[in-house]
Amino acid sequence: MQSTKTREGTEGGAGRASRAVIEARDLTKVYGRGENTVEALAGVSLAVEAGEWVSLIGPSGSGKSTLMNLLGLLDRPTGGSYNLGGREVSGLRGGELSRARRDLVGFVFQSYNLLPGETALANVELPMVYADVGRKERRRRATEALERVGLSGRLKHKPTELSGGQMQRVAIARALVNGPSLLLADEPTGNLDSKTSEEIMSLFGELHDSGVTIMVVTHEAEVAERGDRTIEIRDGRIFGDEGRSPGRDVENGGRR
After folding, report:
1. How far apart are CA 166 and CA 227, in angstroms?
2. How high is the mean pLDDT of the chain?
3. Has UniProt tagged this entry with the keyword Magnesium (predicted)?
4. Average pLDDT value for residue range 189-200
């Protein structure tokens, strides 16, 4: 069932500006040159407030993956502006872009992307290694993150000793351990059976209830319905935005 939660202070001008996690305006992305140019995104604007759960849907070739890559700082836009967690990030390059991605975005992928030879604890510690967090603090925070996702008894287990659902929980713990502004999940239940998918989506629900800002990219209607909003992308543009309140309007970001 689609969430109908309304969080205090998410509407209104000043409050909206102070609580916005994502503010994207007129994002474009063009690949190729000359006659081989492909416009993957054609001026996308949207805002996501702190604590929202947004589902991003769209057919293959719609620009959904391109938008996800831009919002997750895996790629840079050709044009437009992007403010993430109160920071303008659309013009960042090199090390600055890598640090912003590490500090502001937590990723959960369909394929888990865990290091097979490392324990669950070591996998969750990895983002903090790149952030130069001390060993003792890494261990403490990784342990707390795994406890948060219900894996306190699996700290020393390697991925081959875990079920698909448990591996995805490790991936979620790793995504959360640096306290990101945005949790971005790409088809997080794509490799899971229906029972395990329900468990993972229930975990996302708990994270959402605790105030985590979530964007889930999915083609599954049941997964999309879990969010506060469902944004549909077609032909590089926002085709629909279901579940928005009037306070969430962004220029050119609504239904066409």
Report:
1. 22
2. 87
3. no
4. 93
Instruction: Look at residue 190 and tell me if it is in a domain.
Output: yes
The mean pLDDT value for 33-62 works out to 92
Domain that holds residue 241: 13-248
Domain count, the chain: 1
Residue 246 burial (CB count, 10 A)? 7
Confidence label for 33 from pLDDT (cuts 50, 70 and 90): confident
65, amino acid identity: S
Asked if residue 5 is part of any domain, the answer here is: no
Q: In what order do the strands lie in the sheet with 20-31?
A: 38-49, 20-31, 79-84, 87-88
The pTM of the full predicted model, rounded to 2 decimals, is 0.83
In a domain, 1, yes or no: no
pLDDT of residue 34 exceeding 60, the answer is yes
- 207-233 pLDDT, tens digit per residue, is 999 999 999 999 888 999 999 999 999
For residue 199, tell me if it sits in a domain: yes
CATH of the domain at 207: 3.40.50.300
